[in-house]
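Quick illustration, no need to memorize.
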Amino acid sequence: MSKTFAVRTSKKERTILSNIHSSSSLQNLIRYNDQKLLKGAELSEVKLSEITVREQVRTKFNEDSLKELAENIKINGLIQPLVIHREGPKFVLLCGERRFRAMRLINKERAPCFILEGKSKEELLAIQFSENSSREELHYIDKADGIYNYQIATGSSERKIETDLGISKSEVHRSILIAKLPSKLKEAAKMHDIEKYVLIEFDELPSTHPQRVSLEKSIINGEITKRAHLKKFLALQKALKEAAVVATAATVTTPKVTSTKSTGKTKRFIL
């Protein structure tokens, strides 16, 4: 019975693979879905100039954080490879834009990359979303937009997205609701660090709700950032409305006394 040998790799590739497998960060890269989707990927060094960066899941980058990452890469090297997809003579970046930008800051020319080929659009979106969403610094707005873009691109139902991306159905549903909100609200959420449940509960208000317009303005201005602030705002508005109704009712029902003279006698009327 013949033996089966592993595919031969160069000393350089073995060094890269050794660094990768010794790092716990690999678990962030190859999650439940990625184990299947990244299967068969080639690991090699690629020139950064040959990599094209298109619209990514992440839209918010902290410059200070990028500089810190760049310094870390300068000292320790890039432990976690980029993930790219071969499209003709060029490569398209799928995962690792922060690492890509950080390497550019320190004028690195090449980077270790997982190179994918022949993946469908649905598979590429799933890989991109899964890798980015595993990171704490990905804002929930970017995550929501990523899920919604995946739905648009693939035509998937919420249940199928749940299976494809490995997230709960409730999270899929809430994320799609958030993604459909006006861009001003989503930008404010990033700028003012607004809790996602503020946007979710705002979205649940009917379009005819008397406080919806003023509430939206308060959220955009960063005056309401916590769920507790939202509840307090709505409770206060409700109390003011009820007080106004009581005051109006009291004005209407208070009797007024008037008098008139007729044939020398005074008559009193209750109005």
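The beta strands are 42-47, 51-52, 82-87, 90-95, 110-116, 257-262, 265-270.
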